[in-house]
Design brief:
45% of the residues lie in helices and 6% in strands. Residues 9-13 have low confidence and may be disordered. The protein has helices at 25-34, 51-56, 87-91, 102-113, 119-132, 158-170, 176-181, 186-221, and strands spanning 61-65, 73-75, 80-84. The chain crosses the membrane at residues 189-208.
């Protein structure tokens, strides 16, 4: 589930290629997974931060990958997010190649991004699963509490989580559908839709008054009708 080497035709622009040239494979994987450098003091992983909202609010396309090295990787100028979906592989993995705690943390990213206690996300994932033949266990990982949602609890995937959260937070709705689903700023959301409702009511009553005025003018010139 991690691609090594450079076999002809095996890698597209969306696939990471890991070059293992020296040392043990276990040490190479541990080093690759442990290099986390980004600051994370102000990063908060709210419940709204999930795959469905990343797609429908931020407009980032979710692309499912079989390469674990590409998990949570943004590409195409932050327009596409790669997500490794093989939860069953992780749950049954007994390999000593991965560092301690790695598989548990990776499964926790599944719990964060595809919470099983969210019916709306479950429905969304079922459609994705049917279209792309995904691992059905990807959206069935254990629920996590608020402590487990803290960015400080993520070691191996922290940098990618920080980058993804920053891109998500900085995104702005570009159409009415995104405005409707964007609840990140509650007061602004309510203000926007109240303004839309007032505008529609104004247009509606204005149209009625115009019709009534036209009828009155018509009757004034055609009193016999």
């Amino acid at each position: 589930m991690i691609n090594f080497g450079d076999p002809p035709g095996s890698f597209g622009p969306e696939c990471s290629k890991l070059e293992w040239k020296q040392g043990s494979l276990k040490d190479f994987i541990a080093k690759y997974l442990s290099e986390q450098k980004l600051a994370d003091e102000h990063v908060r992983l709210e419940k709204a931060f999930n795959l469905q909202n990343i797609e429908r609010v931020a407009g980032i396309k979710i692309k499912w990958t079989d390469n674990l090295a590409d998990h949570l990787r943004l590409m195409e100028d932050n327009a596409v997010l790669l997500f490794f979906h093989h939860a069953t592989f992780l749950e049954n993995n007994n390999s000593a190649l991965f560092p301690g705690g790695f598989t548990a943390e990776t499964l926790r990213t599944f719990s964060l991004m595809l919470p099983k206690n969210n019916p709306e996300i479950q429905t969304w994932f079922q459609k994705q699963q049917a279209s792309y033949h995904l691992d059905h266990n990807a959206a069935k990982c254990l629920n996590i509490n608020s402590d487990a949602r803290q960015i400080s609890q993520f070691h191996f995937w922290r940098d990618r989580m920080v980058i993804l959260k920053q891109v998500f937070d900085e995104s702005e709705p570009r159409n009415l559908s995104q405005f409707w689903h964007d609840r990140r700023k509650g007061p602004q959301w309510y203000t926007f839709w109240v303004a839309i409702a007032v505008l529609l009511l104004t247009i509606f009553y204005g149209t009625i008054q115009s019709i009534e005025g036209a009828l009155q003018v018509y009757k004034a010139y055609h009193p016999e009708d």
